[in-house]
Amino acid sequence: MLQRELANIFLVDSRNVYKCMITVTKVTVTPDLSIARAYLSVYNTQDKELIINLIKENTKDIRYRLGQQIRNQMRVVPTLEFFLDDTLDYLEHIDELLKK
What we know:
Helices cover about 50% and strands about 25% of the residues. The protein contains four helices and three strands; from the N terminus they run H-E-E-H-H-E-H. Helix 1 (about 1-20) crosses helix 3.
């Protein structure tokens, strides 16, 4: 549920705010539901770290908007942590090495 709602938030923001495509690849939650770690893939930009840093700066707003979406399903909105998911870049690199 968290992954779907975060994806919807980034779907709206990615066009207007970040000017790139952002997908939520995985969300893990601690057992006490206090922290959610979201792994994001960023496309159509050269500086992916800059986008992740912008997202980290806007974490409060994203958490508020997430809370508006899930307030009836979850008692507590978890603290959000965002990380760059570079598994696709790693797979492309391995594929290039295999082609050589």
